[in-house]
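Morning F.,

Quick status update on the modeling queue. The single chain you submitted on Monday has been processed. Sequence for confirmation:
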Amino acid sequence: MKRRIKKQVYIVGIALILVIVFAIFIIRYINYRSTNTYQLKKLGYQKQEIAVIQKLETNQIKQIIGMEYNQSIIKFIKEKYFLFDNLERYLSYQKQEKDEDFTHVVSIVNVGADHEYYDKDFVTKTKTDLKDENLILVNKFHYLDKDFIPKDIVDIKNWYAYGENAIREIVYEQFLQMHKAAEEEGLKLIITSAYRDYEFQESLWNKYRRQNGIEWADSVSARAGYSEHQTGLTLDIITSGEGGGMNTFENTNEFKWLSKNAHKYGFILRYPKDKEDITGYAYESWHYRYVGTEVATKIYNLNITYDEYYAYYQKEIEG
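Structure tokens below.
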């Protein structure tokens, strides 16, 4: 009798354990089905792809779960300058421009170049942020008001410039240091254009438009309000003597020196060669923008345009 009772207790105990184990399994399975990993697997993502996605923030992962499986998403996430808020635009632009590599798509979208230049709907959302001070961005998507005038504009002595020119005081001070360093190596830097107000830029762009049409004018000059020269942070630099004009400046020793040293004084080449689709302008070997030594050095080392720097570092990472 006692043996029978013990056996029954034993059987009940085993059954209870099995029920508990099964219940735990069911609970864990139910919980697993609600995890991001399960949801991503269900969409078709493999283990390595899921590991990439899991590095994102929770709300970002949820957004991807709400989309269809797309291998391009993984490739975009792996890009150095990937910005999650731009993901759908990356995918849209890539779909339109199938031959573009992922790095280039990211650059184009980050700077807003997936929109038409001067797109009225887009630029109303991207007015130049004056709080960025020396790092303000002005391009074909970021504009200044007609009445914007820098407060600390000073005249440039004729020894350093052709004609009458003015520039912000901090830019002038840094240029003088750069000029002195170049001069010590037998080089001559000359400013041919500096600060321009809204009206001057309007007149200049209209002149180019009359000469060769709107498309050409937009490739070589900014429309009024969209010119960096209005910031008082930009200098057009050439040199004297044969071959020292704007169109031949890149062949001079002065240009070679600036290419290696301008960043030490806070200047960057604003419109580099082969970056026209990023900056919106034809290559200008003479156009230098002051951003401060720290940022200029970072841009120099990263070998990116200011538009790319601003979109990724100034607004997203540092901002």
